[in-house]
Amino acid sequence: MTRASHFSGTQPAPAGGPVASGRRELDLFDVVALAWAERGFIAIVFAVIFTLGVAGAMLTLKTSYTAESRFLVLLNEDPTPAAAGWGDGFMLNQVMQSESELLSSEAVRRIALDSLGAETVLGEAVDGDARGAALKVLRGGFGVSREPNSSALNASFESNDPERAALILNAIVDAYLAYREEVLIETGVTGLGVRRRQADVAVLETRAALDAFLDQHGLSNFDTEQQTSQTLVGNLAERLNGARADRDAAQAGAAALRQRLDQIPGQIELYVENGVSGRLLDLRAERASLLARYQPGAPAVTAVEREIAALEAFVASGAAASEGQRRSGANPVRQELESELARREADARSQAVLASSLETQLRDVRSDVERLRGLETEYTRLAQNVAAAEEAAAAIAALEATAEARRAPAVGAADAVRVIDRASPPLEGASMKKLALVASAVLAMGVALFLGLLRGYWRTYVAAGALRRPRETRRPQDVPEPANDPYGGLPVLARIADRSA
After folding, report:
1. Element (H or E) spanning 4, and its range?
2. How far apart are CA 206 and CA 216, in angstroms?
3. Domain ranges within the chain, ordered by starting residue
4. 414-468 pLDDT tens trace
5. How far is CA 187 from the centre of its chain?
6. Which architecture does CATH list for 224-391?
7. What is the pTM of this model?
């Protein structure tokens, strides 16, 4: 009972009777009574909600397995450029934060996804491009943590399959180590290696295109054949001019010889044979014989000498020139000229044939030169592509060699992170089913109790008061307080109905 009713003796209305408009406050006993009155309804509601919660927990919540891996970040006292965390300006927390950011970067996840594939990450067959969903799984299941003032990093990955959790975490670790070397080492040897392979492929492709072009047009070496054709054009033109000149000279000589032959007779007298010369020769021989036996003044010698002098005078007078036996024949001069004419005509014909052959060859070579000139633009383009690709490959090879030389002294730079413990399939999993069951029970009890109290209040007070006219009751604040009340002025903490009636 309330403090006012205790001193005034006024009894409040019963709980089951009509309720006045001025008093609608329920005490603890009223609440318990309402709950007890609706215990069946509360039990039904609790059972329904709890059953739904249990079913949802069993169907939706699955056991998760967390694979873990640990790294040790080593700090070197020798500051090496381009190595994260090395140098006087970096503290331990900054180093660990840098490594954590690098390990959790999107690039590392993409590298791991490329090495595993979307189906492995998702654990099921996929249709189309599922990289977005796979990256979301990698992003949501991966975590990095470390203890304060510790140089060890703890990486974890959560999945519903222990084997897949360990596989994905190890792939992320490998991607992190590879990407760390690529990012933190300035030389970029890996990138240069990829670029060099691409450059070599480009060189092979350009050379293949050039070889196909040469094979298509029946060429082996374009520059050599073009130069040879141009040189051959000059040689053939020079030889053609010489052949034409020799032909013209032979024809001119033959024409001159023909004119001379027209003036030279074909037959001539070869000689006139008479006995004067023979007689004179015999007398001279006889004189020589006589001188061998006689003195020069001997009569026999003198007689022979007189005969010799007479014959010589006869010959000198010319009386014996046209006398005697005559002999004629072919003119040797004409024969010689005819032979020379035949030789000149043969030379003219041979030079004409040679000139005709040279003209044909010259036309063919010039057409070949024109064909090569038409192909020169395409060949130049392909050759420039080959030269550019080879130059680029050589430049990248030089850069790679330089990078390797620069990378050699700093081999330990990429070893600043050591893997202490690689991920292995976890033996035990974690499940939220127990917590979900407890939460379902609490929620079901709360909702059932609330609905039961609401239903009991409605049936007991609201619905019953609407059927009966409320009676006039005196409110507790209208009851006069007794004089000299020792509790006057104190606040009312609770009101208890008087159930003694």
Report:
1. helix 3-8
2. 15
3. 3-61+447-478, 65-186, 224-391
4. 567 778 888 888 776 666 667 777 888 888 888 888 888 888 878 777 766 555 5
5. 20
6. Orthogonal Bundle (1.10)
7. 0.40
